[in-house]
Structures are given as structure tokens and as C-alpha cells.
Amino acid sequence: MNNVYRNLAALIAVIARVFPALLRDAAGIIGIGLISYGAWTIYRPAGLIVAGMLLLAGAVLAARAGRA
Questions:
Q1: Which domain holds residue 38?
Q2: DSSP string, 1-60
Q3: Cys staple from 50: which of 23, 33, 39, 64, with CB 3.0 to 4.6 Å?
């Protein structure tokens, strides 16, 4: 039973370390979607252009940071 508690504590520690990164990434993806949708409601091709530019900027920043 003590082993179960240790495993549960280890799982909670891993989730606590990973959660801020997941939350940050989710906020970024939702932000890209909302900006693109806002441009889409004004002028449909603008929404696609904005989405493409935001994704391209994110890819460039990720490449410069060394993450893929």
C-alpha cells in the first residue's frame, strides 16, 4: 500500500512539472485561433493569412530556441 502512495506522489509531481508548459501551449494555440477567427469574420482570406503568419512566426521562434 505504501508503494501505491509513492507512485501516486510521483505521478502528481510529474503532472505538476508538466502542467504549466501545457497550459502555456494551450493558451498560445487558443490565442492563435481567436486572432485568426477575428480576422476571418472581417474578411475570410485575411483569417487564413493571419493564421499562416502566426504559425510561421511560431515555427521560426521554436527553431531559434532549439525546440522542434
A1: 2-65
A2: -HHHHHHHHHHHHHHHHHHHHHHHHHHHHHHHHHHHHHHHHH-HHHHHHHHHHHHHHHHH
A3: 39
Please choose, from the candidates 38, 59, 39, 61, the residue with its C-alpha nearest in 3D space to the C-alpha of residue 49.
39
Quick one: pLDDT band at residue 2, thresholds 50, 70, 90?
Answer: confident
Copy the grid coordinates of residue 50.
Answer: 493571419
Number of independent structural domains in the chain: 1
Decide: 39 and 50 in contact? Cβ < 8 Å.
yes
What is the rounded distance in angstroms from the CA atom of residue 38 to the CA atom of residue 23?
22
